[in-house]
Specification:
Belongs to the short-chain dehydrogenases/reductases (SDR) family. It is built from 8 helices and 7 strands. It is of the alpha/beta class. The chain has one domain: 3-Layer(aba) Sandwich (Rossmann fold), CATH 3.40.50.720. Helix 1 runs parallel beside helix 2, helix 1 crosses helix 7 and helix 4 runs parallel beside helix 5.
Length: 273
């Protein structure tokens, strides 16, 4: 039982689970005894990850689907929930980034919009399908895989930055709207993990400071266990934050209403304050 009274997760749904960070999270949760639902477009890749998860002794079910397709998402969530019995933990991991590292005018708007669709519409659709099941069960936890780009302006990757910024607001909305019903929501930036997406980015050419994916797995597992429930609605960064460091900062974070998306003001006389 978690400190907030909502049971620790026994089941989880991970999107973008066929490779990279999603694969690491799915296998890491399975290693901790959590049965996992795996969602991605590549059926063969999902089957491989499911086999890894089952090898740990945990249950695993797959459903190939595009997270931007509403009908496919509804069918996927229904099938996964029917197999697992419920979805206690949702990890919205599926993501995309522009194919070129350019300012806004150097990119195709259709490419930019496709990134927004995957990174924002996807989590909206999946969460919309999962949330009623969580509420019926008395609560649950949602992890939105985020990025530092959600909180700071950059010279490229406009679609990625604005989609992650909007996702951060969605996290806060979930925490505010459904917290009393037992739902906890979190933004988690996994750090700079060596994946197909990150290594394709010119900015990472020659980069050596990769964040081990296990750091993100540790935080997701702690969220699923309820260890960090008091910090619902907040932003965590794997590779810098750990469950222990976040618990040590808990009182400061809450006292200053920190780790949230907000508009800084000019001081006590600022009318926006």
């Amino acid at each position: 039982m978690s400190v907030a009274g909502v049971p620790a997760a026994r089941t989880a749904l991970v999107t973008g689970a066929g490779r990279g960070i999603g694969r690491a999270i799915a296998v890491g949760l399975a290693e901790r005894g959590v049965s996992v639902g795996l969602l991605a477009r590549d059926a063969a890749a999902l089957d491989e990850v499911a086999a890894e998860c089952r090898a740990t002794g945990a249950g695993a079910v797959t459903f190939p689907a595009d997270v931007t397709d509403a009908e496919a998402v509804t069918a996927a969530v229904g099938a996964v929930a029917a197999e697992l019995g419920t979805v206690d933990l949702l990890v919205n991991n599926a993501g995309a980034i522009e194919p070129v590292e350019e300012p806004f005018l150097g990119t195709d708007v259709d490419d930019t919009w496709r990134v927004v669709e995957v990174n924002l519409r996807g989590p909206l659709l999946v969460t919309h399908a999962v949330l009623p099941r969580m509420l019926a069960a008395g609560g649950g936890r949602v992890v939105n895989i985020s990025s530092g780009m959600a909180y700071r302006a950059t010279t490229a990757y406009t679609g990625y930055a604005i989609s992650k910024g909007a996702l951060a607001r969605f996290t806060a909305q979930l925490a505010a709207q459904y917290g009393d019903a037992g739902v906890r929501a979190f933004d988690l930036a996994p750090g700079t993990v060596r994946t197909v997406m990150s290594t394709s980015m010119p900015v990472h050419a020659g980069y050596t400071g990769w964040t081990p994916p296990e750091r993100a797995v540790e935080l997701v597992a702690a969220i699923g266990a309820g260890t960090l429930d008091d910090l619902t609605g907040r932003f965590f960064r794997a590779g810098t934050d750990t469950p222990e460091s976040l618990l040590a900062l808990r009182d400061q974070i809450l006292a200053h209403d920190a780790r949230v998306l907000r508009l800084p003001t000019a001081g006590p006389d600022d009318p926006l304050g």
